[in-house]
């Protein structure tokens, strides 16, 4: 008991220092220690591309996050419950827990000095009635996975207990992992930090437990085994500025992991994965991406994984790059109109826009003989044969780590140079596939 009390006191002292710095989280003031090499090699895009459109099953979209990203994941799930049907929350808390107050975030939400549950549910109910978030009835029957370590003194388990109760209040089925002696962090097989430790980069491994398999199976039923060795997909470095990047504490670029099957047009699921404070690109590079344990399952289960990124700033006062879960940007931070919320939703909408719409049947005519319809002529596809370099220069493809990737489908055409020649067929506006009749 004395050991826990001393740890709690030490954690509180660090956290109060973080308040002075403008970030709600004891993790925010720790130095970034060099970590182990990430498991699973990635083919990452060398240059920044536009975010592509894919064939996405919109009924299977999920959001996941750790710490400030966990609170943001809850905000996105609740405010856009018509879009996000599942949520995986590591060390987060109830919706609108901070109530637009950094001091409330630091005390009530992190250290559970009191419960925010009543205020949270009251706000959720009123905003649902006002139409500033999606109808709360959407939550009924959805699923949420929750993770909270018994040695997490950054976000106490009482806060996650409240989140569990809140979800169940609205009819969300939950699976709550709360028995591991884990510190504050995102748990995965690829984490480099020991389970009971709270340290940068806050990617922990608890006795080879695979929490991603747990919640992916809970959400989607049985899943294929994770990929080992070199991954077959592509990590695309995309421009966030069309979605608000460069302002509202959003970075100018984010990443999208695209399995080969998704690039070729097969229908895929989508998961949005959100890092926490001091896990920005400036702090730990892409370790959140490479140690989250998601790309390995994405490769074998047709799942796109979106990694939006935020930045630190002095104005507003967010020097450690947290997602806005206490109102440092605006009082609408937890609503659909919140700048970061709206930006991520626009990214999701773009990714989901590549599927073919369901055709609306024409009304059946009544009376008289049914005329024999004249079949419409089949349009001739437009094909282009050129070097991969020429395709990129002409805007039919883009470069990704030295490879030419067809726009729209993101199919890998081979090396981006004048020696490789490819035939591309245009099947839609700025959408190309390899080959032509």
Structural key phrases:
alpha/beta, single chain, 437 residues, three-stranded parallel beta sheet, 18 strands, 2 domains
Describe the structure.
Helix content is 27%, strand content 19%. It is of the alpha/beta class. It has a 9-stranded mixed sheet with strand order 1-9-10-12-11-2-3-4-5, sandwiched between helices. A 3-stranded parallel sheet has the order 6-8-7. The model is unreliable at 1-40 and 357-366 (pLDDT under 50). It has helices at 2-21, 68-79, 102-109, 117-130, 157-169, 211-220, 260-263, 281-284, 287-291, 295-301, 339-351, 388-394, and strands at 43-44, 62-66, 86-90, 143-147, 173-177, 186-187, 193-194, 203-205, 234-239, 253-258, 269-274, 303-307, 382-387, 397-400, 403-406, 412-415, 421-428, 431-434. The chain has 2 domains: 44-312 and 324-354, no CATH class; 382-434, no CATH class. The radius of gyration is 23 Å and the shape is globular. β4, α5 and β5 form a beta-alpha-beta unit. It contains 12 helices and 18 strands. The longest helix has 20 residues, at 2-21. The termini are far apart.
What is the topological layout?
Elements: H1 2-21, E1 43-44, E2 62-66, H2 68-79, E3 86-90, H3 102-109, H4 117-130, E4 143-147, H5 157-169, E5 173-177, E6 186-187, E7 193-194, E8 203-205, H6 211-220, E9 234-239, E10 253-258, H7 260-263, E11 269-274, H8 281-284, H9 287-291, H10 295-301, E12 303-307, H11 339-351, E13 382-387, H12 388-394, E14 397-400, E15 403-406, E16 412-415, E17 421-428, E18 431-434
Parallel strand pairs: 1-9, 2-3, 2-11, 3-4, 4-5, 6-8, 7-8, 11-12
Antiparallel strand pairs: 9-10, 10-12, 13-17, 14-15, 15-16, 17-18
């Amino acid at each position: 008991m004395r050991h826990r009390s001393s740890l709690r006191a030490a954690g509180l002292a660090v956290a109060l220092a973080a308040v002075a710095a403008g970030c709600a989280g004891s993790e925010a003031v720790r130095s970034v220690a060099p970590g182990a090499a990430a498991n699973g090699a990635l083919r990452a895009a060398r240059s920044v591309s536009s975010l592509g459109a894919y064939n996405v099953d919109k009924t299977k979209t999920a959001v996941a996050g750790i710490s400030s990203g966990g609170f943001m994941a809850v905000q996105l799930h609740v405010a856009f419950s018509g879009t996000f049907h599942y949520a995986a929350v590591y060390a987060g808390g109830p919706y609108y827990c901070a109530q637009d107050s950094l001091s409330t975030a630091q005390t009530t939400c992190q250290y559970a000095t009191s419960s925010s549950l009543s205020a949270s549910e009251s706000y959720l109910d009123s905003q649902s009635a006002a139409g500033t978030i999606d109808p709360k009835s959407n939550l009924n029957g959805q699923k949420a996975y929750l993770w909270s370590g018994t040695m997490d003194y950054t976000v106490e388990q009482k806060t996650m207990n409240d989140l569990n109760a809140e979800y169940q209040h609205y009819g969300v089925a939950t699976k709550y992992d709360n028995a591991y002696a884990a510190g504050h962090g995102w748990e995965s097989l690829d984490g480099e930090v020991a389970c009971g430790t709270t340290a940068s980069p806050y990617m922990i491994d608890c006795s080879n437990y695979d929490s991603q398999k747990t919640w992916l199976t809970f959400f989607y039923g049985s899943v294929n085994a994770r990929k080992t060795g070199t991954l077959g997909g592509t990590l695309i470095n995309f421009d966030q500025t069309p979605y608000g990047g460069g302002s509202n504490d959003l970075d100018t670029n984010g990443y999208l992991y695209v399995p080969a099957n998704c690039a070729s047009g097969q229908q895929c699921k989508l998961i949005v994965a959100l890092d926490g404070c001091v896990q920005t690109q400036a702090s730990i590079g892409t370790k959140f991406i490479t140690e989250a344990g998601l790309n390995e399952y994405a490769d074998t289960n047709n799942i796109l994984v979106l990694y939006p990124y935020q930045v630190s700033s002095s104005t507003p006062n967010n020097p450690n790059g947290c997602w806005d879960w206490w109102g440092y940007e605006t009082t609408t931070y937890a609503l659909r109109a919140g700048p970061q919320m709206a930006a991520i939703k626009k990214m999701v909408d773009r990714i989901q826009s590549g599927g073919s719409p369901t055709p609306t049947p024409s009304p059946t005519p009544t009376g008289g003989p049914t005329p024999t319809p004249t079949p419409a002529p089949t349009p001739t596809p437009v094909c282009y044969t050129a070097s991969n370099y020429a395709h990129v220069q002409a805007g039919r493809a883009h470069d990704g780590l030295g490879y030419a990737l067809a726009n729209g489908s993101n199919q890998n055409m081979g090396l981006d140079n004048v020696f490789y020649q490819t035939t591309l067929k245009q099947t839609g506006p700025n959408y190309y596939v390899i080959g032509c009749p």
